[in-house]
Amino acid sequence: MLGFTLPRAARNTRITRAHKVSAALVATASCAAALSLTAAPSDAATPSAHAPAAVKPVSANGLPLTAKDRADDGKKDKVLASSVADHLKVTGVEKQGHTAKEAASRSVERKAIATPKTAPKAAPKVAPKRYANNLDGWIRQSLDIMKAKGIPGSYEGLHRNIMRESSGNPNAVNGWDINAINGIPSKGLLQVIQPTFDTYHVAGTANKLTDPVANITAAANYAAHRYGSIDNVNSAY
Q1: For burial by CB atoms within 10 Å, which of 39, 62, 117, 230 has the most?
Q2: pTM, full prediction
């Protein structure tokens, strides 16, 4: 608070109650004015005190940026952006290549699963059946051919008629019956004449009347058509 001093003449004068009150009011008013001037900032100082300071860009050495520095920074930004783009492209191509390799690998695995590791072994070739070159062998070979061609007959029926007709001789020839008189004698194991042989010859056998197998199968084929089966023949036929 500011000090207040009365004039010399007034100090010698008796101060009344009214004078004290007036002096107090004047002192109070002076203090309020002084405080108001001290607290209120000036209009010129206020904006400069609170306005933000402008920040100027500087280079790496602390000096203000020049036009060349700004151009160089722009080039660096472009190079960086291009490098990032190239990296993304390379990464995309690598991912595509990896995906293609995985697909190819899965395809190979599926093929490996679907294809057996070892090819199935080919069925062994069946060797041709061999028959003895005797009456038993001739009858058995004839029965196999007859079975394949659907011609009926049994071992017993063939053997029985062969023994009656030729006694098992494949070259037997009848030179005295009516067929011989007519110039077509009966020949072979089952005494077959040539016209009958030619008509009932079984394909796959020799085209020779006295061949043992050809003679038996032709006679059995004829008997099947005439009597139902060679087994039904019990005399000259």
Answers
A1: 230
A2: 0.50
